[in-house]
Amino acid sequence: MSVPDQREPTTSAPVPALEVRGLVKHYPGVKALDGVDLVVHQHEVLGLAGENGAGKSTLLKALVGLVTPDAGEIYVRGEAVKLRSVVDAADHGIGMVFQEQSLVPNLTAAENILLGGEGPAVRRGVYRWDVMRRLAQEQLDKIGSKIDPLARTDTLSFADRQMVEIAKVLRIEQRSQHPPVIILDEPTSVLESKEIDTLFAQIRRLREFASVVFVSHRLDEVLDVCDRVSVLRGGQSVGEVATAGAVPRELHRMMIGSTGSDDHYHENAAASVEAEQPRLSVRGLSGKSFRDIDLDVAAGEIVAIVGVHGSGREDVCRALFGIEPTSAGEIRMDGKKVSLPNTRAACAAGIGYVPAERKNEGMVGPMSVAENMTLTKQKARCAGPFVAPRKQAGLVDRWIERLSIRTPGRDTPIQRLSGGNQQKVVLARWLIGDDIRLLLLDHPTRGLDIGARSEVYRLMRELATSGVATVLLADSLEEAIGMADRILVMNDGRVVTEVACPNGDKPTPLDLVKEMV
Amino acid sequence: MTVTTGVAASRRIIRRGAAFRDAGPPVALVVIFAVFAALSPQFRSIDNVQNIVDAAAVLAVVTCGITFVLMMGSIDLSSAGVMGASALTVSLLVANNRNDNDFGLVGILAAIVLGCAFGCLSGLALVLLKVPSFMATLGVSAIGLGVATLLFAGVQPNISDTMLKSWAIERFLGLSYLTWIAAACILVGWLVQRYTRLGRYAFAIGGAEEVLTLSGVKVKPYKVAVFTLAGAFYGLAGVMVTSQLGAGLVQAGNGYDFSAITAAVVGGTLLTGGRGGVLHSAVGVVLVMVLTNGLVQVGVSPYWQGGVEGLIVVAAVAAAVIPQRRRNQVVK
Amino acid sequence: MSTPVAMQPVAEPATGKSGPRAAHRLTGFMPLIALVALVVALTIADPDFLTQRSLTAVARTAAPLIVLAAGATLIVLCGGIDLSIAALASLSTVLLALWLPDLGGLATPAVIAVAAAIGAVQGVAHVLLRIPSFIVTLGGMSILSAVALVVSGAGTVRVVDDTPVKWLELYVGGYVPMSAAMALLVVALIAAILKATPLQSWVSATGYAESAARLAGTPVDLVKIGAFCVSGACAGFAAVMLVSRQFSGGPTMADNLLLPAVAAIVVGGTAITGGHGSLWRSLAGAFVVTLLRVGLPIVGVPSAYEQILYGVIIVVAVALTLDWSKVSIIK
Amino acid sequence: ACSEAPAGENDPAGAGACKPADVKLVGQVRNESNPYEASWLAGGDAFAKTVGLTQQRLTYGGDSTKQQEQISQLLAGDTKCLVMNVLPNGDSDTAPIVKGADKAGAYLVTQWNKPADLKPADYKTWISHITYNGVESGKQIGDALAKSIGGSGGIIALQGVLDTAAAKDRFAGLQASLKENSGVQLLDQQTANFSRAEALTVTKTLLTKHGDKVKGIWAANDDMALGALEALQQAGKAGKVAVVGIDAVPDAVAAVQSGSMTATVSSDGTWQGGIGLAIGFCVATGKLQVKDIAADNRAFFAEQFLITKDNAASFAQPKTDPADFDCANVFKRVAGPLK
Ligand SMILES: Nc1ncnc2c1ncn2[C@@H]1O[C@H](COP(=O)(O)OP(=O)(O)OP(=O)(O)O)[C@@H](O)[C@H]1O
Ligand SMILES: Nc1ncnc2c1ncn2[C@@H]1O[C@H](COP(=O)(O)OP(=O)(O)OP(=O)(O)O)[C@@H](O)[C@H]1O
Ligand SMILES: O[C@@H]1[C@H](O)[C@H](O)CO[C@H]1O
Ligand SMILES: [Mg+2]
Ligand SMILES: [Mg+2]
C-alpha cells in the first residue's frame, strides 16, 4: 500500500503544515539522514516508523532546531525556514516530547510544564506562583492528570513524569497563533495502557486543531492512532502507508526492506524446565517497598513479574542485584545461600541486571561500545591481570555481529548510537563471559524496534535453553505472557498470586489485570 | 492500569524523606550548640551568642553568594581575590588616609559593582571560553589579588568614613549593623531563590542543565548573571571586612572561599547542584561559627583547633547524609 | 532475525573520518602546545630564560608538583577531588624528617606507606559515609595539618644526615634531575598500569557515570579507595622529594602546593567533572604551572601584574586544552 | 651516569671581582601587600638607587615552595655577581637557599629565619644573617604592657604563625616578662597567624570569654595588635584595654602616638631591605672581604627600638640614611652576636 514519493505538493491540496525535502545529516562515520522527504498535513496524525537507528530521532530533532541539517529544506506552512534552536521551532509552532525524559527533577511539575515559556506566570523575572499553578493545572487537566502541579518532579512516578512532559509540549498551543505541530518521539514506551489510552485521546483531540508526528516501535499503536505512516530506513524515506486497513506485518516489511515476521512471541520455543533444584530461590525477602517475597526460578526458566507502578517489582529486582537493601529474608543460588551487599557480590554470584533507565544507569555515554560491553566480565577480555586488546576486539566484534548492533565501529562512543542499539550493547555486557546464571531484565525491550525486539526475545530463549534463569519485568503484559513460563503478580509490595504460563495454555492479559489491581 | 494509591503512597515516602534530610543540619546545629553550652558557661552567655552572630556576618554574605553558584553545580573560588580588590577599592574611595576621596555610599556601591564585574568575568570565562568554574574562578581570584596589590601600593589605606566604620561598631537590638546587613542579604537571597527566574533557573541548571536547553531556555546569560550576583555579595563582603578592620587589606578575603563552601555544604547544599539554598547555607554558617567560637571557649589547644573543627565538620556532614543514603547513590 | 540493513555498518565517508581524527589528535596535544607557547613567550620576554641550566632547574622544581598532581589526577578522573594532598605531603615531610635518624633508608618507604594508608582512610570515609570527597578531604586537610603541627612541635624538623634521600638530588647524565626522572617514572608507571589493565575503563566509567558503572558490576568503591590510596602515596613521595631539597621537614612545607596541583590537572585538560583526562596531561599541566610560578617573576614581571597574568594565562590555557567533545556540560 | 651537580654549573665567583655596574641586586620577601614588607622592598630600591642600580623584586606569597622555586630558577641564571637579600619564609627554607647560593657562588644575606645550627661562617658566599632578638622584644612589650596596666591584671596573648621562630621567641619573651611581673596573669592565648582579620575574631571571642578581666592584649606583631584594637572598638572597650605589638608599621606607630596602643618595637623594615643588599654589594665589589668580617657580624641581632608614646614621633616617618649603607657602616646596628 506504499504510495510513490510526492516531491511536488499537489496544488489543489491545502498547504502542508510541515514539509521536509532532501534532508541530509552526517555524523562521524554515519549518515543519519540521507535525503529524507516528509510531509505532515494539517489536522493529521502522522506516524513515523523505522528500525532503531533509522534516523527518526535525528529527523525530528532537525524539525525542532536541535540538529542542523547538512543539506535539505524544511517548509513550515509552505514557507522555507531555518530552525536554529528550540525557541525558533516553538515560534513556528513546532514542539517535541523527547525520547529520553527531559524534565528538571528538582523543579515543580508546574515549572517544568511552563519552562522557557512562563508567560504571565513570571512577570519581570518575578514568579507568581498562583498563576503558575493555574496555568499548569490547565495543561494537566487537558490530559486528565491528577498530579499536584507544585509537587517536585522527582517525587513523581516515571509515568507521571511522562504525562508532565506531554502537558509541557501542549503549551505550544498557547505559543503560536498558527495550528501547532506536535512531535512525540516514543512517548508510550514508558506508559501503561491506561495512560496510553489517555494520551491517545489527547492526540485525537489535538488533531482537531493541530498536526501530530508520532513515533513508536509498537506498530499496532502506530496503526491505531495515526492516519498515515511514513517509513524511514537507513536515513531514507522508503514510503508511506495509509493506516486504514493496514497490518503491522506490512509496515514491518517496509521498515526492514524484506519480508519478516512481526511475530515477536516465541511461545513454542520454551525450554522444558527441569524441576530439581531452583537456580534462584528467595524466601521471605523484605525491603523498603516489598515484603515477604518468595520466588523460585529454575535454570532455563523465565519468570515474569507483573504489577502496576508502585507494586515494588523493580525494587525486588534491584534487591536481587544488591542495590536495594533488604531487611529480612534469604537468597539462594543453586541451593547455596548468598549475601548480596553490593553489585559486585551479585556479579560474582553469576547474576546480571539490565536496568530500565538506560541513559543514566545502563551505559557510560562517552565511553566506547567496546568498553561498555566489556566493563563487567574481565576474564573474557583479559590475559591474567592485563587487557588483551586483540582478544577484546575479537570478542566485541563477535557480539556486535551476533546482536546486529548498528555502530560505525567498536570504538564509537555508545552515546552516538540509537537507543535500541545502545540497549543491545548493555545486554551484551552480561552475555560475553558465558558465565551468567541469572539475568534480571527490567524492561529490556523498552525503545527497541521490532527487529531488535525479536532478537532480544530470541536471545532470551537461547539463554534459557542454555540454562540461564531469567526474571523479566516486561514492557507489556503481552510480552510477559509471550515470554514467561510463569508469571508472578505483585501488588503493594507483595506477591499476590502466581500464574502458570505454559506453552499452549497461556493466560490472557485480562486474567492478569484482575489480580493486579 | 495505574493504581493511584500506590503512586501516592510512594510519593509520600519520598516527601517524608525530603523533610527528614532537610532537618539534618539544623539538628546538628542544635546538638553542637547544646554540647558547648553544657561545657562552657561563657559560651552560653548572651554576650557570646551576640558575638557568634556578629562574627558570622561576613561569612554569611559570602556564603549567600556562593550558594547560588553551588546550586548550579558550579564552584566559586574567587571570593578571596574579589574581596581583596573590593576592600582596597572601597577604602580608597571613602574618606581615608591615602587620598582626599570621600565618596561615602557611592564608594561602597562602586566596590560592589567591582565585585559584580569580577563575578561577570568568571561567568564569561565559563560560558564563552568554556573553562570549568573551578579554574575560571581561581584565575579571577588571582586577578583580584593582583588588582588589590596594585591598589595597595605599599601603604595601608585606613578608613575614616564614619558611616562605614559605624557598621561594625554601632548596634541595633544588640546586634551590629553588619549583622543586620547580613540578615538582609539572606532575606534578599532567599527571595531571589524562591521568587525570581534567576534563582529558580540557577536551581534548575543544577538539576538538569541540558533540559533547560532542550526547553529553549538560553542558560548562558543566567550562568553569567548568577556569577555576577555572587560577585556582588563578595564585593559587599569585602566592604564589610573593611568596616570591621578599619582598613583595606589585600588579604581581606583570605580563607573565605573554602569556609563559605564548607558552610554551604554543612548546611545541606550539594556540590553537584540542584539542592539546598540560602536558608540551608545560613544554618551552615551559624554551625561553622558556633564551632569556631565554641572550641576557643572550651579552651581547645590552638594546635588542635583546626583539626578538631575539620573532624566535626566531616562528622556533621556524615550525620546529615545518613537519612538519604542509598546504595547506588552517586557521591562525588 | 537480523536484518540486512542493520547488519551492515554504515559505510564511512573518507572525509568524515580524517577530519575529526586529526582534530582529535590535535586536542590531545594541546597541553604540550600550551607549554611550548609559554616557553616561547617567556623567552621573548627574557632571552636569557631559555638556557639548558634554566630548563634543568624548571624540571627539578616541577618534580614534586608533578607527583602530587599525578596522584590527584586519578581521583579527579574518578569524579572526585583531593584537597588534602598538600597537607598530607607536609605531614609526610615531618614524619620523614623525624624517622630518618632511626630508620635511615627505610624511612622513605615507611613514609610513603603511611601516606598511602592515610589516603586510603579518607577514601574509605568518602565511600562508606557517602560524604563528598571535597568535604572529606577538606576536613582531612585540617586534621592532617593539626597532626603535623603537633608531631613536629610546631616547628621545622631538621635533617642532619640526608644521605638516604640524597639520591633524589643527583642528575642523570648531568642534565636530567633525578627527582624529575622519578616524577616521570611515577607518571609513566601509573599510566601504564591503567592502560594495560581494566582499571582504565573502571576509572573512566566511575568518573563519567558512577551509577551505571556500579550497575555494570564495576568495583566503584574499591576503585575510589584505590585512587585515594595512590594519591596518598604520591603525596608521600612528593614529600620525600621536598625533604631531599629542603634538608628538613615542616608542618606547612607543602601546603601551598594544593592549588597549583589542582591547576596542573585542569590546565592539562583533565575534566574536573571526571571521566576524561590522563596523567600525561597533568604532567604537561604541572610544567605550565611551574613555569608560571617561577618564570613570570624571574623574567621581571612585577608582583601585582604577575598575579593578574597568572590568572589570565591559566584560564586561557584551560580554554585551549580542554577537549569539549568529551565533556558535555561544563560546570 | 649520575652527577651531583647539573652540567654547566658555575664555579663560585672569585670574591670581589665584580664591577659595580655588573652587580645584580635581588630582594625577596613574601608579598608586596603588607606595609612591613613593602617598606623592606622600598628600602632595597633606595639602596640600589644610591649605587646606580635597580633591585629586582621577588615575592612568593608566603609560599615556601614557591620561594625555593624562584631561588633555584634565579640561581640557574647568571650568578657571577648576584646579590640576594632574602627573607626566608620559615626556618626550614633557609638551608636550601643557602646551599643553592653557595653552590652557585651568589652573595647572600638572609634575615629573620634560620635554624640555629646553620651558620654563615661555614659558607663562603652566605655573608651574613640578620635577625632580631624576639625573646627580648617579646619581653620588652610584655613589660610595657604590665607597666601600663599598673602591674596587675589579666592579659590575653595573640600568637603568630605557630611554626615560626619569631612567634615562638616572642612568646617566650612574654613568658619571661610574666615571670617578673607576677601581678599580671595570662588569661588565655590563641594564635591569630600574624593576621589582622583573624586577630579581630579571636580577640572578640576572648573578650566575651573573659569579659572585664582583660586589661591588656599582647600581640606578636602589629597587624594582630591593630586587629585587636578594632575588636576593642567594636566591643565598646576602646581605650580601656592596653595593646602592644611588634614591627612598628606606620599605623601602629600612629596608634602609639595617639595613645590607643601602648608600645611596639621597630626592626626598621626599610633599613632591612637596604642593608642586606648593601652588605652583599660591598663584598661583591671587593670593598669588603668576607674573611675580614668579624665572626660576630656573620650572624647577628640587629638593634631594635622600643617605641612608646615618648619616642613615637621620631619613628612616624620611615627614613633611610644613605650613610647607613656605606661599606664602613653596614655593621653599625649589630646589637650582639646570634647564639
Ligand atoms: N549525536 C550523534 N552523533 C553521532 N551519531 C549519531 C548521533 N545521533 C544519532 N546518531 C546516529 O544516527 C543514526 C540515526 O539515529 P536516530 O537516533 O535518529 O535513530 P532512531 O531512528 O531514532 O532510532 P531509535 O528507534 O533507536 O530511537 C544512528 O546510526 C545513530 O548512531
Ligand atoms: N506556594 C508557593 N509559593 C512559593 N514557592 C513555592 C510555592 N509552592 C512551591 N514553591 C516552590 O517550589 C519548590 C518545591 O516546593 P516544595 O515545598 O514541594 O519542595 P521542598 O521539599 O521544600 O524542596 P527543597 O527541599 O528543595 O526545599 C520550592 O522550593 C518552592 O521554591
Ligand atoms: O610580621 C612580621 C613578619 O611576618 C615576619 O615573620 C617576622 O615577624 C613579624 O613581625
Ligand atoms: Mg530515536
Ligand atoms: Mg524545603
Automatic annotation (TrEMBL), chain A:
<keyword id="KW-0677">Repeat</keyword>
<dbReference type="InterPro" id="IPR003439">
    <property type="entry name" value="ABC_transporter-like_ATP-bd"/>
</dbReference>
<dbReference type="InterPro" id="IPR050107">
    <property type="entry name" value="ABC_carbohydrate_import_ATPase"/>
</dbReference>
<dbReference type="GO" id="GO:0016887">
    <property type="term" value="F:ATP hydrolysis activity"/>
</dbReference>
<feature type="domain" description="ABC transporter">
    <location>
        <begin position="18"/>
        <end position="259"/>
    </location>
</feature>
<dbReference type="Pfam" id="PF00005">
    <property type="entry name" value="ABC_tran"/>
</dbReference>
<dbReference type="InterPro" id="IPR027417">
    <property type="entry name" value="P-loop_NTPase"/>
</dbReference>
<protein>
    <submittedName>
        <fullName>ABC transporter ATP-binding protein</fullName>
    </submittedName>
</protein>
<keyword id="KW-0067">ATP-binding</keyword>
<feature type="domain" description="ABC transporter">
    <location>
        <begin position="273"/>
        <end position="517"/>
    </location>
</feature>
<dbReference type="InterPro" id="IPR017871">
    <property type="entry name" value="ABC_transporter-like_CS"/>
</dbReference>
<keyword id="KW-0813">Transport</keyword>
<keyword id="KW-0547">Nucleotide-binding</keyword>
<dbReference type="GO" id="GO:0005524">
    <property type="term" value="F:ATP binding"/>
</dbReference>
<dbReference type="InterPro" id="IPR003593">
    <property type="entry name" value="AAA+_ATPase"/>
</dbReference>
Automatic annotation (TrEMBL), chain B:
<feature type="transmembrane region" description="Helical">
    <location>
        <begin position="52"/>
        <end position="71"/>
    </location>
</feature>
<dbReference type="GO" id="GO:0022857">
    <property type="term" value="F:transmembrane transporter activity"/>
</dbReference>
<feature type="transmembrane region" description="Helical">
    <location>
        <begin position="224"/>
        <end position="247"/>
    </location>
</feature>
<feature type="transmembrane region" description="Helical">
    <location>
        <begin position="23"/>
        <end position="40"/>
    </location>
</feature>
<keyword id="KW-1133">Transmembrane helix</keyword>
<keyword id="KW-1003">Cell membrane</keyword>
<feature type="transmembrane region" description="Helical">
    <location>
        <begin position="134"/>
        <end position="152"/>
    </location>
</feature>
<feature type="transmembrane region" description="Helical">
    <location>
        <begin position="278"/>
        <end position="296"/>
    </location>
</feature>
<feature type="transmembrane region" description="Helical">
    <location>
        <begin position="77"/>
        <end position="96"/>
    </location>
</feature>
<protein>
    <submittedName>
        <fullName>Sugar ABC transporter permease</fullName>
    </submittedName>
</protein>
<dbReference type="InterPro" id="IPR001851">
    <property type="entry name" value="ABC_transp_permease"/>
</dbReference>
<dbReference type="Pfam" id="PF02653">
    <property type="entry name" value="BPD_transp_2"/>
</dbReference>
<feature type="transmembrane region" description="Helical">
    <location>
        <begin position="172"/>
        <end position="192"/>
    </location>
</feature>
<keyword id="KW-0472">Membrane</keyword>
<dbReference type="GO" id="GO:0005886">
    <property type="term" value="C:plasma membrane"/>
</dbReference>
UniProtKB/TrEMBL annotation, chain C:
<feature type="transmembrane region" description="Helical">
    <location>
        <begin position="106"/>
        <end position="128"/>
    </location>
</feature>
<feature type="transmembrane region" description="Helical">
    <location>
        <begin position="26"/>
        <end position="45"/>
    </location>
</feature>
<feature type="transmembrane region" description="Helical">
    <location>
        <begin position="175"/>
        <end position="194"/>
    </location>
</feature>
<feature type="transmembrane region" description="Helical">
    <location>
        <begin position="257"/>
        <end position="275"/>
    </location>
</feature>
<feature type="transmembrane region" description="Helical">
    <location>
        <begin position="135"/>
        <end position="155"/>
    </location>
</feature>
<dbReference type="Pfam" id="PF02653">
    <property type="entry name" value="BPD_transp_2"/>
</dbReference>
<protein>
    <submittedName>
        <fullName>Sugar ABC transporter permease</fullName>
    </submittedName>
</protein>
<keyword id="KW-1133">Transmembrane helix</keyword>
<feature type="transmembrane region" description="Helical">
    <location>
        <begin position="282"/>
        <end position="301"/>
    </location>
</feature>
<keyword id="KW-0812">Transmembrane</keyword>
<dbReference type="GO" id="GO:0022857">
    <property type="term" value="F:transmembrane transporter activity"/>
</dbReference>
<keyword id="KW-1003">Cell membrane</keyword>
<dbReference type="InterPro" id="IPR001851">
    <property type="entry name" value="ABC_transp_permease"/>
</dbReference>
<feature type="transmembrane region" description="Helical">
    <location>
        <begin position="57"/>
        <end position="76"/>
    </location>
</feature>
<feature type="transmembrane region" description="Helical">
    <location>
        <begin position="222"/>
        <end position="245"/>
    </location>
</feature>
